[in-house]
Amino acid sequence: MAGGAREVLTLQLGHFAGFVGAHWWNQQDAALGRATDAKESPGELCPDVLYRTGRTLHGQDTYTPRLILMDLKGSLSSLKEEGGLYRDKQLDAAIAWQGKLTTHKEELCPKNPYLQDFLSAEGVLSSDGVWRVKSIPNGKGSPPLTTATTPKPLIPTEASIRVWSDFLRVHLHPRSICMIQKYNHDGEAGRLEAFGQGESVLKEPKYQEELEDRLHFYVEECDYLQGFQILCDLHDGFSGVGAKAAELLQDEYSGRGIITWGLLPGPYHRGEAQRNIYRLLNTAFGLVHLTAHSSLVCPLSLGGSLGLRPEPPVNFPYLHYDATLPFHCSAILATALDTVTVPYRLCSSPVSMVHLADMLSFCGKKVVTAGATIPFPLAPGQSLPDSLMQFGGATPWTPLSACGEPSGTRCFAQSVVLRGIDRACHTSSPQGHLHPPPYPHLFSSCSPQGMVLDGSPKGAAVESIPVFGALCSSSSLHQTLEALARDLTKLDLRRWASFMDAGVEHDDVAELLQELQSLAQCYHAGDSLVD
Protein backbone atom coordinates (compact mmCIF):
# COMPACT_ATOMS: atom_id res chain seq x y z
CA MET A 1 0.00 0.00 0.00
CA ALA A 2 1.10 3.55 -0.68
CA GLY A 3 3.22 5.07 2.06
CA GLY A 4 3.42 1.84 4.04
CA ALA A 5 -0.09 2.17 5.50
CA ARG A 6 -0.86 -0.20 8.36
CA GLU A 7 -3.98 -1.80 6.97
CA VAL A 8 -7.10 -2.67 8.95
CA LEU A 9 -9.77 -5.11 7.78
CA THR A 10 -13.29 -4.28 8.99
CA LEU A 11 -15.97 -6.90 9.71
CA GLN A 12 -19.61 -5.76 10.03
CA LEU A 13 -21.82 -8.43 11.56
CA GLY A 14 -25.53 -7.74 11.88
CA HIS A 15 -28.15 -5.26 10.77
CA PHE A 16 -27.58 -2.52 13.35
CA ALA A 17 -23.86 -2.93 12.67
CA GLY A 18 -24.83 -2.25 9.04
CA PHE A 19 -26.49 1.03 10.08
CA VAL A 20 -23.42 2.13 12.04
CA GLY A 21 -21.16 0.95 9.22
CA ALA A 22 -23.14 2.81 6.54
CA HIS A 23 -22.70 6.09 8.43
CA TRP A 24 -19.05 5.24 9.10
CA TRP A 25 -18.24 4.60 5.43
CA ASN A 26 -20.24 7.64 4.30
CA GLN A 27 -18.11 9.74 6.65
CA GLN A 28 -14.88 8.22 5.33
CA ASP A 29 -16.12 8.86 1.79
CA ALA A 30 -16.85 12.51 2.60
CA ALA A 31 -13.33 12.94 3.97
CA LEU A 32 -11.90 11.37 0.79
CA GLY A 33 -13.95 13.71 -1.36
CA ARG A 34 -12.64 16.72 0.53
CA ALA A 35 -9.04 15.47 0.38
CA THR A 36 -9.17 15.32 -3.42
CA ASP A 37 -10.00 19.03 -3.59
CA ALA A 38 -6.79 20.81 -4.59
CA LYS A 39 -7.56 23.63 -2.17
CA GLU A 40 -7.51 21.29 0.84
CA SER A 41 -4.27 20.35 2.58
CA PRO A 42 -3.71 16.62 3.19
CA GLY A 43 -5.39 15.37 6.33
CA GLU A 44 -3.76 13.57 9.23
CA LEU A 45 -5.76 10.39 8.69
CA CYS A 46 -4.49 7.79 6.22
CA PRO A 47 -7.39 6.46 4.09
CA ASP A 48 -5.31 3.49 2.94
CA VAL A 49 -5.69 2.05 6.45
CA LEU A 50 -9.37 1.33 5.70
CA TYR A 51 -9.51 1.32 1.88
CA ARG A 52 -7.97 -0.80 -0.86
CA THR A 53 -7.10 0.01 -4.45
CA GLY A 54 -8.30 -2.22 -7.25
CA ARG A 55 -9.11 -2.32 -10.93
CA THR A 56 -12.15 -3.59 -12.80
CA LEU A 57 -11.91 -5.94 -15.77
CA HIS A 58 -12.41 -2.84 -17.94
CA GLY A 59 -9.34 -1.13 -16.53
CA GLN A 60 -11.06 1.35 -14.23
CA ASP A 61 -9.31 2.10 -10.95
CA THR A 62 -11.38 1.59 -7.82
CA TYR A 63 -10.96 2.53 -4.18
CA THR A 64 -13.27 0.51 -1.97
CA PRO A 65 -13.56 -0.31 1.75
CA ARG A 66 -11.51 -3.24 3.00
CA LEU A 67 -14.69 -4.76 4.37
CA ILE A 68 -16.53 -8.02 4.97
CA LEU A 69 -20.14 -7.69 6.10
CA MET A 70 -22.66 -10.35 7.03
CA ASP A 71 -26.41 -9.86 7.18
CA LEU A 72 -29.60 -11.85 6.71
CA LYS A 73 -31.79 -12.69 3.74
CA GLY A 74 -33.94 -9.71 2.77
CA SER A 75 -31.76 -7.06 4.40
CA LEU A 76 -30.18 -5.51 1.30
CA SER A 77 -33.23 -3.88 -0.30
CA SER A 78 -32.05 -2.57 -3.69
CA LEU A 79 -28.33 -3.16 -3.04
CA LYS A 80 -26.89 -6.06 -5.04
CA GLU A 81 -24.85 -8.63 -3.15
CA GLU A 82 -22.06 -8.43 -5.74
CA GLY A 83 -22.04 -4.62 -5.78
CA GLY A 84 -22.11 -2.54 -8.93
CA LEU A 85 -18.51 -1.64 -9.76
CA TYR A 86 -17.37 -4.94 -11.25
CA ARG A 87 -20.53 -6.19 -12.91
CA ASP A 88 -20.02 -7.59 -16.39
CA LYS A 89 -22.90 -9.14 -18.36
CA GLN A 90 -20.50 -10.85 -20.74
CA LEU A 91 -18.91 -12.74 -17.86
CA ASP A 92 -22.32 -13.56 -16.42
CA ALA A 93 -23.13 -15.31 -19.70
CA ALA A 94 -19.87 -17.28 -19.84
CA ILE A 95 -21.07 -20.25 -17.84
CA ALA A 96 -19.80 -23.80 -18.13
CA TRP A 97 -23.22 -25.47 -18.51
CA GLN A 98 -24.32 -25.58 -22.15
CA GLY A 99 -27.67 -27.32 -21.62
CA LYS A 100 -31.14 -25.91 -21.16
CA LEU A 101 -31.44 -23.16 -18.55
CA THR A 102 -34.44 -21.88 -16.63
CA THR A 103 -34.11 -18.38 -15.20
CA HIS A 104 -36.05 -17.23 -12.14
CA LYS A 105 -35.93 -13.52 -11.38
CA GLU A 106 -37.00 -11.78 -8.19
CA GLU A 107 -38.58 -8.38 -8.60
CA LEU A 108 -36.00 -5.78 -7.59
CA CYS A 109 -36.74 -3.34 -4.76
CA PRO A 110 -37.07 0.20 -6.11
CA LYS A 111 -34.29 2.55 -5.01
CA ASN A 112 -35.35 5.44 -2.86
CA PRO A 113 -35.00 8.92 -4.45
CA TYR A 114 -31.85 9.65 -2.45
CA LEU A 115 -29.95 6.67 -3.86
CA GLN A 116 -31.18 7.37 -7.38
CA ASP A 117 -29.80 10.90 -7.04
CA PHE A 118 -26.52 9.58 -5.64
CA LEU A 119 -26.05 7.05 -8.46
CA SER A 120 -26.69 9.65 -11.14
CA ALA A 121 -23.95 11.79 -9.59
CA GLU A 122 -21.50 8.88 -9.34
CA GLY A 123 -21.74 7.36 -12.82
CA VAL A 124 -23.95 5.51 -15.29
CA LEU A 125 -24.83 1.91 -16.13
CA SER A 126 -23.92 1.54 -19.80
CA SER A 127 -25.85 -0.53 -22.34
CA ASP A 128 -23.38 -3.40 -22.01
CA GLY A 129 -24.19 -3.73 -18.30
CA VAL A 130 -20.93 -2.21 -17.03
CA TRP A 131 -20.96 0.52 -14.40
CA ARG A 132 -19.00 3.52 -15.66
CA VAL A 133 -17.74 5.59 -12.74
CA LYS A 134 -17.25 9.29 -13.33
CA SER A 135 -13.68 10.53 -13.13
CA ILE A 136 -12.27 10.73 -9.63
CA PRO A 137 -9.75 13.46 -8.75
CA ASN A 138 -6.28 12.11 -7.87
CA GLY A 139 -7.58 8.58 -8.34
CA LYS A 140 -9.19 8.31 -4.90
CA GLY A 141 -12.44 9.11 -3.24
CA SER A 142 -15.75 10.07 -4.73
CA PRO A 143 -16.47 12.84 -7.19
CA PRO A 144 -17.57 16.09 -5.59
CA LEU A 145 -21.11 15.94 -4.23
CA THR A 146 -22.08 19.17 -5.97
CA THR A 147 -20.71 21.36 -8.73
CA ALA A 148 -21.68 24.71 -10.14
CA THR A 149 -24.02 23.03 -12.61
CA THR A 150 -25.40 20.16 -10.56
CA PRO A 151 -28.13 20.55 -7.94
CA LYS A 152 -27.54 19.67 -4.33
CA PRO A 153 -28.17 15.98 -3.62
CA LEU A 154 -31.33 14.93 -1.88
CA ILE A 155 -31.35 14.35 1.85
CA PRO A 156 -32.85 10.96 2.78
CA THR A 157 -35.86 11.19 5.05
CA GLU A 158 -36.43 8.93 8.04
CA ALA A 159 -39.52 7.53 6.32
CA SER A 160 -37.49 6.45 3.27
CA ILE A 161 -34.96 4.46 5.30
CA ARG A 162 -35.88 0.88 6.21
CA VAL A 163 -32.47 -0.79 5.99
CA TRP A 164 -28.88 0.47 6.11
CA SER A 165 -28.36 0.09 2.35
CA ASP A 166 -31.04 2.76 1.81
CA PHE A 167 -28.50 5.47 2.68
CA LEU A 168 -25.11 3.88 1.99
CA ARG A 169 -23.37 6.07 -0.59
CA VAL A 170 -20.19 3.99 -1.00
CA HIS A 171 -19.60 1.33 -3.64
CA LEU A 172 -18.50 -2.02 -2.19
CA HIS A 173 -16.20 -4.68 -3.58
CA PRO A 174 -17.88 -7.93 -4.74
CA ARG A 175 -16.08 -9.77 -1.92
CA SER A 176 -17.59 -7.55 0.77
CA ILE A 177 -21.18 -8.77 1.21
CA CYS A 178 -21.81 -12.25 2.61
CA MET A 179 -25.49 -13.11 3.08
CA ILE A 180 -26.75 -15.67 5.61
CA GLN A 181 -29.60 -17.10 3.55
CA LYS A 182 -30.90 -19.55 6.15
CA TYR A 183 -32.28 -16.75 8.38
CA ASN A 184 -34.68 -13.92 7.53
CA HIS A 185 -34.33 -10.24 8.24
CA ASP A 186 -38.11 -9.60 8.20
CA GLY A 187 -41.01 -11.52 9.65
CA GLU A 188 -41.50 -13.53 12.82
CA ALA A 189 -40.24 -16.88 11.52
CA GLY A 190 -36.70 -17.91 10.68
CA ARG A 191 -34.99 -15.21 12.73
CA LEU A 192 -31.40 -15.25 14.03
CA GLU A 193 -32.38 -14.59 17.64
CA ALA A 194 -30.01 -16.53 19.90
CA PHE A 195 -26.26 -16.67 20.56
CA GLY A 196 -26.13 -20.43 19.89
CA GLN A 197 -27.70 -19.98 16.46
CA GLY A 198 -25.03 -17.44 15.55
CA GLU A 199 -22.20 -19.69 16.68
CA SER A 200 -23.68 -22.53 14.64
CA VAL A 201 -23.68 -20.40 11.47
CA LEU A 202 -19.88 -20.21 11.39
CA LYS A 203 -19.57 -23.86 12.35
CA GLU A 204 -21.22 -24.78 9.06
CA PRO A 205 -18.57 -25.47 6.39
CA LYS A 206 -20.42 -23.33 3.83
CA TYR A 207 -20.30 -20.10 5.83
CA GLN A 208 -16.96 -20.78 7.52
CA GLU A 209 -15.24 -21.40 4.18
CA GLU A 210 -16.89 -18.36 2.64
CA LEU A 211 -15.64 -16.14 5.47
CA GLU A 212 -12.16 -17.65 5.35
CA ASP A 213 -11.94 -17.16 1.57
CA ARG A 214 -12.85 -13.50 1.89
CA LEU A 215 -10.41 -13.00 4.76
CA HIS A 216 -7.59 -14.54 2.72
CA PHE A 217 -8.46 -12.38 -0.29
CA TYR A 218 -8.13 -9.14 1.68
CA VAL A 219 -5.30 -10.16 4.02
CA GLU A 220 -2.99 -11.52 1.32
CA GLU A 221 -2.92 -8.18 -0.51
CA CYS A 222 -1.93 -6.28 2.67
CA ASP A 223 1.70 -5.33 3.27
CA TYR A 224 1.47 -4.18 6.90
CA LEU A 225 -1.77 -5.59 8.31
CA GLN A 226 -2.16 -4.28 11.85
CA GLY A 227 -5.41 -6.06 12.61
CA PHE A 228 -9.18 -6.29 12.46
CA GLN A 229 -12.00 -4.15 13.75
CA ILE A 230 -15.30 -5.95 14.29
CA LEU A 231 -18.62 -4.10 14.39
CA CYS A 232 -20.96 -6.68 15.86
CA ASP A 233 -24.58 -6.66 17.05
CA LEU A 234 -24.72 -7.85 20.66
CA HIS A 235 -28.49 -8.03 21.19
CA ASP A 236 -29.32 -10.89 18.80
CA GLY A 237 -27.79 -14.02 17.30
CA PHE A 238 -25.01 -12.02 15.66
CA SER A 239 -23.32 -11.96 19.07
CA GLY A 240 -22.61 -15.65 18.42
CA VAL A 241 -21.47 -14.95 14.85
CA GLY A 242 -19.10 -12.28 16.18
CA ALA A 243 -17.72 -14.54 18.89
CA LYS A 244 -17.00 -17.31 16.39
CA ALA A 245 -15.48 -14.85 13.90
CA ALA A 246 -13.20 -13.39 16.59
CA GLU A 247 -12.11 -16.92 17.55
CA LEU A 248 -11.30 -17.68 13.91
CA LEU A 249 -9.26 -14.47 13.58
CA GLN A 250 -7.36 -15.18 16.79
CA ASP A 251 -6.51 -18.69 15.61
CA GLU A 252 -5.44 -17.75 12.07
CA TYR A 253 -3.87 -14.31 12.59
CA SER A 254 -2.13 -14.53 15.94
CA GLY A 255 -0.36 -11.33 16.93
CA ARG A 256 -2.70 -9.03 15.00
CA GLY A 257 -4.97 -6.62 16.85
CA ILE A 258 -8.67 -7.50 17.15
CA ILE A 259 -10.80 -4.64 18.45
CA THR A 260 -14.50 -5.43 18.76
CA TRP A 261 -17.27 -2.84 19.00
CA GLY A 262 -20.35 -4.53 20.47
CA LEU A 263 -23.40 -2.63 19.20
CA LEU A 264 -26.84 -2.33 20.76
CA PRO A 265 -29.73 -0.35 19.20
CA GLY A 266 -32.04 2.11 20.99
CA PRO A 267 -34.15 1.71 24.14
CA TYR A 268 -36.23 -1.34 24.99
CA HIS A 269 -39.46 -1.78 26.95
CA ARG A 270 -40.54 -4.02 29.82
CA GLY A 271 -43.50 -5.36 27.84
CA GLU A 272 -41.30 -7.29 25.39
CA ALA A 273 -40.37 -10.12 27.78
CA GLN A 274 -38.83 -12.64 25.37
CA ARG A 275 -36.95 -10.01 23.40
CA ASN A 276 -35.51 -8.51 26.60
CA ILE A 277 -34.43 -11.89 28.01
CA TYR A 278 -32.81 -12.85 24.71
CA ARG A 279 -31.14 -9.46 24.60
CA LEU A 280 -29.71 -9.99 28.09
CA LEU A 281 -28.45 -13.50 27.34
CA ASN A 282 -27.00 -12.57 23.94
CA THR A 283 -25.24 -9.53 25.38
CA ALA A 284 -23.74 -11.49 28.29
CA PHE A 285 -22.60 -14.43 26.13
CA GLY A 286 -21.31 -12.04 23.47
CA LEU A 287 -19.27 -9.91 25.88
CA VAL A 288 -17.64 -12.89 27.58
CA HIS A 289 -16.80 -14.81 24.40
CA LEU A 290 -15.68 -11.76 22.44
CA THR A 291 -13.44 -10.73 25.35
CA ALA A 292 -11.80 -14.16 25.28
CA HIS A 293 -10.85 -13.82 21.60
CA SER A 294 -10.34 -10.04 21.11
CA SER A 295 -7.56 -7.66 22.07
CA LEU A 296 -10.16 -5.15 23.26
CA VAL A 297 -13.97 -5.05 23.48
CA CYS A 298 -16.11 -1.93 23.78
CA PRO A 299 -19.93 -1.98 24.02
CA LEU A 300 -21.58 0.93 22.18
CA SER A 301 -25.15 2.00 22.91
CA LEU A 302 -27.24 5.11 23.53
CA GLY A 303 -29.24 3.16 26.11
CA GLY A 304 -28.73 3.61 29.81
CA SER A 305 -28.31 -0.03 30.80
CA LEU A 306 -27.10 -3.40 29.51
CA GLY A 307 -29.30 -5.27 31.98
CA LEU A 308 -33.02 -6.06 32.28
CA ARG A 309 -34.03 -2.79 33.90
CA PRO A 310 -34.77 -0.19 31.19
CA GLU A 311 -33.05 3.16 31.59
CA PRO A 312 -33.68 6.32 29.53
CA PRO A 313 -31.35 6.97 26.58
CA VAL A 314 -28.40 9.30 27.04
CA ASN A 315 -28.78 13.03 26.48
CA PHE A 316 -26.58 15.36 24.43
CA PRO A 317 -26.91 19.13 25.07
CA TYR A 318 -26.67 20.08 21.37
CA LEU A 319 -28.31 17.06 19.74
CA HIS A 320 -31.99 16.30 19.25
CA TYR A 321 -32.37 12.68 18.21
CA ASP A 322 -35.04 10.00 18.21
CA ALA A 323 -33.70 7.03 20.19
CA THR A 324 -36.20 4.69 18.52
CA LEU A 325 -34.70 5.32 15.05
CA PRO A 326 -31.65 3.20 14.12
CA PHE A 327 -30.82 5.88 11.50
CA HIS A 328 -30.34 8.45 14.29
CA CYS A 329 -28.67 6.23 16.91
CA SER A 330 -26.22 4.73 14.44
CA ALA A 331 -25.20 8.18 13.17
CA ILE A 332 -24.18 9.25 16.67
CA LEU A 333 -22.33 6.03 17.41
CA ALA A 334 -20.52 6.18 14.05
CA THR A 335 -19.44 9.75 14.84
CA ALA A 336 -17.97 8.61 18.15
CA LEU A 337 -16.35 5.58 16.51
CA ASP A 338 -14.79 7.75 13.82
CA THR A 339 -13.09 9.76 16.58
CA VAL A 340 -11.96 7.13 19.10
CA THR A 341 -10.34 5.04 16.32
CA VAL A 342 -8.15 7.95 15.16
CA PRO A 343 -4.98 6.77 17.01
CA TYR A 344 -4.47 3.73 14.78
CA ARG A 345 -5.55 5.48 11.56
CA LEU A 346 -3.08 8.38 11.54
CA CYS A 347 -0.61 8.83 8.68
CA SER A 348 2.27 8.94 11.14
CA SER A 349 1.78 7.52 14.62
CA PRO A 350 3.52 4.97 16.86
CA VAL A 351 0.12 3.73 18.08
CA SER A 352 -1.21 0.58 16.42
CA MET A 353 -4.31 -1.44 17.27
CA VAL A 354 -2.19 -3.79 19.36
CA HIS A 355 -0.50 -0.92 21.21
CA LEU A 356 -3.80 0.81 21.91
CA ALA A 357 -5.32 -2.41 23.23
CA ASP A 358 -2.25 -3.13 25.38
CA MET A 359 -2.36 0.35 26.92
CA LEU A 360 -6.03 0.00 27.88
CA SER A 361 -6.34 -3.68 28.77
CA PHE A 362 -3.63 -4.41 31.33
CA CYS A 363 -4.35 -6.91 34.15
CA GLY A 364 -7.15 -8.59 32.21
CA LYS A 365 -9.21 -5.43 31.71
CA LYS A 366 -10.06 -6.15 28.07
CA VAL A 367 -13.49 -4.44 28.19
CA VAL A 368 -13.53 -0.64 27.96
CA THR A 369 -16.23 2.02 27.85
CA ALA A 370 -16.63 4.80 25.29
CA GLY A 371 -17.79 8.38 25.63
CA ALA A 372 -18.05 11.43 23.39
CA THR A 373 -18.97 15.10 23.37
CA ILE A 374 -20.88 15.73 20.12
CA PRO A 375 -20.24 18.49 19.19
CA PHE A 376 -17.47 19.72 21.47
CA PRO A 377 -18.92 23.01 22.78
CA LEU A 378 -16.59 25.66 21.44
CA ALA A 379 -18.20 29.09 20.97
CA PRO A 380 -16.96 31.71 18.44
CA GLY A 381 -13.95 33.52 19.89
CA GLN A 382 -13.61 31.06 22.77
CA SER A 383 -10.28 29.40 23.51
CA LEU A 384 -9.89 25.70 24.12
CA PRO A 385 -8.85 26.15 27.79
CA ASP A 386 -11.93 28.32 28.41
CA SER A 387 -14.14 25.71 26.78
CA LEU A 388 -12.67 22.96 28.94
CA MET A 389 -13.09 25.06 32.09
CA GLN A 390 -16.86 25.16 31.63
CA PHE A 391 -17.04 21.46 32.49
CA GLY A 392 -15.66 22.14 35.97
CA GLY A 393 -14.73 18.87 37.60
CA ALA A 394 -17.27 16.82 35.63
CA THR A 395 -16.29 14.25 33.02
CA PRO A 396 -16.45 16.14 29.69
CA TRP A 397 -18.20 13.42 27.68
CA THR A 398 -21.51 11.60 27.43
CA PRO A 399 -21.24 7.84 28.19
CA LEU A 400 -21.86 5.59 25.17
CA SER A 401 -21.49 2.08 26.61
CA ALA A 402 -24.68 1.73 28.70
CA CYS A 403 -22.56 1.47 31.84
CA GLY A 404 -23.99 4.42 33.76
CA GLU A 405 -22.51 7.81 34.56
CA PRO A 406 -18.71 7.89 34.91
CA SER A 407 -18.76 10.38 37.81
CA GLY A 408 -17.40 8.92 41.02
CA THR A 409 -15.72 5.96 39.30
CA ARG A 410 -12.07 5.06 39.01
CA CYS A 411 -10.24 5.33 35.71
CA PHE A 412 -7.43 2.81 35.26
CA ALA A 413 -6.38 3.88 31.74
CA GLN A 414 -7.82 5.99 28.95
CA SER A 415 -7.31 7.17 25.38
CA VAL A 416 -8.66 10.64 24.57
CA VAL A 417 -9.04 12.27 21.14
CA LEU A 418 -10.10 15.85 20.40
CA ARG A 419 -10.46 16.60 16.70
CA GLY A 420 -11.71 19.55 14.70
CA ILE A 421 -9.86 22.20 16.75
CA ASP A 422 -7.32 24.43 14.99
CA ARG A 423 -3.93 23.94 16.64
CA ALA A 424 -2.75 27.52 16.23
CA CYS A 425 -5.75 29.49 17.49
CA HIS A 426 -7.74 26.70 19.18
CA THR A 427 -10.84 27.38 17.12
CA SER A 428 -13.08 25.09 15.11
CA SER A 429 -11.26 23.57 12.12
CA PRO A 430 -12.43 22.02 8.81
CA GLN A 431 -10.42 18.93 9.79
CA GLY A 432 -13.24 18.05 12.20
CA HIS A 433 -15.74 15.25 11.84
CA LEU A 434 -17.61 15.56 8.52
CA HIS A 435 -21.36 15.30 8.03
CA PRO A 436 -22.24 14.44 4.43
CA PRO A 437 -25.82 14.67 3.15
CA PRO A 438 -27.01 11.26 4.47
CA TYR A 439 -26.34 12.39 8.05
CA PRO A 440 -29.64 13.18 9.84
CA HIS A 441 -30.46 16.70 11.01
CA LEU A 442 -29.68 16.34 14.72
CA PHE A 443 -27.85 19.53 15.65
CA SER A 444 -29.29 22.56 17.39
CA SER A 445 -27.67 25.97 17.92
CA CYS A 446 -24.62 25.15 15.79
CA SER A 447 -22.91 26.97 12.93
CA PRO A 448 -22.02 25.11 9.70
CA GLN A 449 -18.56 24.52 11.22
CA GLY A 450 -20.04 23.11 14.45
CA MET A 451 -19.46 26.18 16.61
CA VAL A 452 -21.98 26.52 19.46
CA LEU A 453 -24.22 29.55 18.95
CA ASP A 454 -26.82 31.31 21.08
CA GLY A 455 -29.46 30.64 18.44
CA SER A 456 -29.71 28.28 15.48
CA PRO A 457 -29.18 30.09 12.16
CA LYS A 458 -32.03 29.55 9.72
CA GLY A 459 -31.30 27.17 6.90
CA ALA A 460 -27.68 26.60 7.93
CA ALA A 461 -26.71 22.94 7.57
CA VAL A 462 -23.91 21.67 9.80
CA GLU A 463 -21.03 20.52 7.61
CA SER A 464 -18.42 19.53 10.19
CA ILE A 465 -18.08 19.58 13.97
CA PRO A 466 -15.36 19.28 16.59
CA VAL A 467 -15.70 16.00 18.52
CA PHE A 468 -14.22 14.88 21.83
CA GLY A 469 -14.02 11.09 22.24
CA ALA A 470 -12.62 8.75 24.87
CA LEU A 471 -12.04 5.08 25.58
CA CYS A 472 -11.73 4.31 29.26
CA SER A 473 -10.94 1.32 31.45
CA SER A 474 -13.16 2.24 34.38
CA SER A 475 -14.50 0.82 37.63
CA SER A 476 -18.01 1.48 36.26
CA LEU A 477 -17.56 -1.86 34.50
CA HIS A 478 -17.39 -3.60 37.88
CA GLN A 479 -20.98 -2.58 38.66
CA THR A 480 -22.17 -3.18 35.09
CA LEU A 481 -20.78 -6.70 34.77
CA GLU A 482 -21.89 -7.69 38.26
CA ALA A 483 -25.40 -6.38 37.49
CA LEU A 484 -25.45 -8.50 34.32
CA ALA A 485 -24.51 -11.57 36.39
CA ARG A 486 -27.22 -10.80 38.98
CA ASP A 487 -29.86 -10.48 36.27
CA LEU A 488 -28.81 -13.82 34.84
CA THR A 489 -29.04 -15.61 38.19
CA LYS A 490 -32.68 -14.47 38.49
CA LEU A 491 -33.70 -16.19 35.25
CA ASP A 492 -35.65 -19.42 35.27
CA LEU A 493 -33.99 -20.99 32.25
CA ARG A 494 -36.78 -23.56 31.96
CA ARG A 495 -39.00 -20.73 30.68
CA TRP A 496 -36.52 -19.96 27.92
CA ALA A 497 -35.99 -23.43 26.50
CA SER A 498 -36.03 -21.99 22.97
CA PHE A 499 -32.82 -20.07 23.71
CA MET A 500 -31.20 -23.16 25.21
CA ASP A 501 -32.35 -25.35 22.31
CA ALA A 502 -30.40 -23.10 19.93
CA GLY A 503 -27.14 -24.64 21.12
CA VAL A 504 -26.50 -23.48 24.71
CA GLU A 505 -26.22 -25.94 27.61
CA HIS A 506 -26.99 -25.29 31.30
CA ASP A 507 -23.29 -25.76 32.02
CA ASP A 508 -22.55 -22.98 29.54
CA VAL A 509 -24.72 -20.58 31.57
CA ALA A 510 -22.97 -21.58 34.80
CA GLU A 511 -19.59 -20.98 33.16
CA LEU A 512 -20.84 -17.66 31.79
CA LEU A 513 -21.76 -16.47 35.29
CA GLN A 514 -18.33 -17.43 36.59
CA GLU A 515 -16.58 -15.63 33.72
CA LEU A 516 -18.69 -12.49 34.20
CA GLN A 517 -17.91 -12.36 37.91
CA SER A 518 -14.19 -12.89 37.27
CA LEU A 519 -14.20 -10.16 34.64
CA ALA A 520 -16.07 -7.80 36.96
CA GLN A 521 -13.47 -8.41 39.67
CA CYS A 522 -10.74 -7.07 37.37
CA TYR A 523 -12.30 -3.62 37.71
CA HIS A 524 -12.84 -3.70 41.46
CA ALA A 525 -9.46 -2.64 42.79
CA GLY A 526 -6.05 -1.46 41.68
CA ASP A 527 -4.22 1.73 40.81
CA SER A 528 -6.20 4.30 38.88
CA LEU A 529 -5.67 7.59 37.09
CA VAL A 530 -8.69 9.20 38.73
CA ASP A 531 -10.26 8.35 42.09
From TrEMBL:
Involved in the regulation of mitochondrial distribution and morphology. Required for mitochondrial fusion and mitochondrial network formation. The keyword Mitochondrion applies. Residues 157-346 form the DML1/Misato tubulin domain. Belongs to the misato family. The lineage of its organism: Eukaryota, Metazoa, Chordata, Craniata, Vertebrata. The keyword Cytoplasm applies. One of its GO terms (biological process) is mitochondrion organization. The gene is MSTO1. One of its GO terms (cellular component) is mitochondrion. Residues 6-118 form the Misato Segment II tubulin-like domain. This is Protein misato homolog 1. Signal peptide: none annotated. Keywords: Cytoplasm, Mitochondrion. Gene3D superfamilies: Tubulin/FtsZ, GTPase domain. It is found in: Cytoplasm; Mitochondrion. Pfam families: Misat_Tub_SegII, Tubulin_3.
